[in-house]
Design a protein that fits this description.
Belongs to the YicC/YloC family. Its cofactor is a divalent metal cation. This protein is of the alpha+beta class. The chain has three domains: about 90 residues, Ribosomal Protein S5, domain 2 (2-Layer Sandwich), CATH 3.30.230; about 40 residues, no CATH class; about 140 residues. About 60% of the residues lie in helices and about 15% in strands. The chain contains nine helices and six strands; from the N terminus they run E-E-E-H-E-E-H-H-E-H-H-H-H-H-H. The strands form two sheets. Strands 1-2-4-3 form a four-stranded mixed beta sheet, covered by helices on one side. A two-stranded antiparallel ribbon has the order 5-6. About 20% of the residues are buried. The mean pLDDT is about 85.
Amino acid sequence: MPVASMTGFARIEEQTPSGSFAWELRSVNGKGLELRLRLPPGFEALEPEIRRLASARLARGNVQVALTVAKPDERLRFTINETMLAEVLALSGKLVANGDAATPTADGLLAIRGIIEPAEAGTVEEVRSEARNEAALAAFSRALDALATARQEEGAAIARVLRERLATIADLTAQAEADPARRPAAIFERLRAQVAHLLGTDAALDEGRLHAEAALLATRADVSEELDRLRAHVEAAAKLIDGGGPVGRRLDFLSQEFNRESNTLCSKSNATSLTAIGLELKVIVDQFREQVQNIE
């Protein structure tokens, strides 16, 4: 599964024999997966299955789910109360046999109150509700597919930006590695120039002491470990992006590590050129982290 964003929108409208269903799904960033449902009366029983389906497709994000339903136009159905009809026929048969009444007609029987009843309750309604719920859930599943696709499309765009930022971080790391200001000889010459400026050009300088101080400064200013960790973090982040799936939390952790190494690089720097690289790193790392906040 490719990297996905946590933001997306989907709307599905479907006309079925059970009615017209319109699902609208909106997703924004979130620490975990949070669903907010707005279902019309009579559809509350769908909530557990909706949450199960969403959890199977989405890992993070605040998702608003709204359902709008229009019931189909249906003619009222009727059923015959056969028990009552049998009793009426038995009674009328006795009256006819005694000569007290004429043989009843069908329309006359059906006109008797209670013989015909509307078929809107009981088993018929239960079957209809079950079919309606199944149709609504099927429509929701398709809306969920559309939302996941939208999130993946945006995720692909974010992944491209993240790869660009990683390439820039790798390039800046290489620049810091190759910066001549890091070399012990360069540190020694800067120290010599500073001491000469303070003491005057005619003052005799103790070369041995200068070399010792330069070595101490070089040790304190050594950023080899920071550069090694930056390269390792770049490689780890690239693998996470290429691997896909819900990697937002791990990328966020790496962005914090990037920021930590950039800060250390700046604090250890003893040259303006290295400081400039460290500051540029901080800018790119901030941009990287901002994009990571959108990743699932």
